[in-house]
Design goal:
With 261 residues, the protein is mostly helical. Helices cover 85% and strands 0% of the residues. Helix 3 (104-123) runs antiparallel to helix 4. The longest helix is centred in the C-terminal third of the chain and has 87 residues, at 135-221.
């Protein structure tokens, strides 16, 4: 059966399309994995880190409120403390509901215990008591619990920061793996393009140039038409056979005409 030239070209283009589709599928799959990992990173670590930062800011504001209470400014001090406590509790709820790392539940429990201990100190009356204006009370009784609560929050935040850094390193490696199929595909397409070009030259251009040369030679001497199609088994073979039949009929016509004359 004659192998059609258009079939050869179609197969070449089909192979190129399959190669591109396969590499594109691999790249898409890798990027989907990367996207899910980034989303998980934000959900698991960044949310808790942000909550810890909010808790640290709330602790600092509470400390300022306590100092105002110790100076006798009950209204403003209590307002600052209550607002900061609301922020801390909301952030604490976020951290407690987002436990994803090993031993993170222990860090969360440590933050809760340290804050409760600190909170019992400023919940008691300060204004109009011996604590008002008592700097020694603040330094020896309040400040150590304040620092202990901050250390507990820092420990929780550091745990998530370290995990976030480790996950970022993994994501970096995954990004390289996502890029590599694309690079391989580009190289493969370039190599395939050279091979396909060579195929076209051998299967299409070379026989075409030979056909043109044979036609010009026959037109010059009108003797014989010689065109080699040993290396082809496609439309060029059909074309060569057709031309040979036409030339044979032309020669027979002239031979018969010569005999009549």
């Amino acid at each position: 059966m004659i192998s059609k030239l258009r079939h050869k070209i179609f197969i070449g283009i089909l192979l190129l399309a399959v190669l591109l589709a396969a590499s594109g599928t691999i790249v898409l799959h890798q990027f989907l994995l990367l996207n899910r990992s980034v989303t998980a990173l934000i959900e698991d670590n960044y949310k808790t880190i942000q909550a810890c930062q909010n808790m640290l800011e709330a602790l600092e504001r509470e400390d300022s409120g306590i100092l105002l209470l110790s100076l006798g400014n009950w209204e403003k001090g209590r307002y600052i403390i209550d607002a900061a406590d609301s922020v801390f509790e909301a952030s604490m709820a976020v951290a407690a509901g987002n436990v994803t790392e090993l031993h993170e539940d222990e860090r969360v429990a440590a933050v809760r215990a340290a804050y409760n201990e600190y909170k019992t100190k400023w919940q008691k009356p300060i204004v109009d008591t011996d604590k008002e204006g008592n700097l020694n009370w603040y330094v020896t009784d309040i400040n150590p619990d304040f620092l202990h609560a901050k250390e507990a929050v820092y420990a929780l935040m550091k745990l998530n920061q370290n995990s976030m850094y480790d996950e970022a390193s993994v994501l970096k490696e995954r990004s390289y793996r996502a890029i590599m199929p694309g690079i391989v595909a580009i190289v493969a397409v370039i190599v395939f393009a050279f091979l396909f070009n060579y195929f076209l030259r051998q299967s299409l251009m070379a026989p075409l140039y030979e056909l043109i040369a044979a036609t010009e030679k026959y037109r010059a001497n009108m003797s014989s038409f010689s065109f080699s199609t040993k290396k082809t088994d496609d439309e060029f073979r059909e074309l060569e056979q057709g031309i040979q039949k036409v030339i044979s009929k032309v020669h027979k016509f002239y031979d018969q005409k010569a005999k009549v004359n």
